[in-house]
Amino acid sequence: LTPIETFSVGKTIIVSDIKNNLEIVVPEVNGLAFKKDDELDLATKKKKMIEEKSVYEPNAIKSYEEKFSYEQFIKDYERFYSFPHASAEQKEGMLLAFNEYRTKQN
User: At what angle do helices 70-80 and 88-105 cross, to 10 degrees?
Assistant: First the structure.
């Protein structure tokens, strides 16, 4: 949740390159990612962030607005529940497919 909260106020972030982080942060687009357990890479990314923060911050707020904002949540929720005759299993399948789609959009 930290990257999403950071993006919501128009800031960017440096995260480790674990899968969960990379589902939200797109390296070199809306933030930076360092190799897990690599202190030298983290130091390099910190320096890069100081020098190039203004490049990533506009994309961070854009990512928030397009994928994680409350307004987007409502749109996604309404889209998901617009199938009133679908069974619970069908809705679960649609939700899994939708989450997979959103992950790939990052």
Answer: 140
Q: How far is CA 23 from the centre of its chain?
A: 5
pLDDT for 56: 95
Residue that is written with structure tokens 């106020």 in the block: 9
Q: Which amino acid is at 34?
A: F
As to burial, measured by CB atoms within 10 angstroms (0-12 exposed, 13-18 middle, 19+ buried), residue 8 is middle
Q: pTM for the full model?
A: 0.69
- SS3 call for 98: helix
| Spatial separation of the C-alpha atoms in residues 44 and 46, rounded to whole Å | 5
CA-closest candidate to residue 32, choices 47, 15, 44? 15
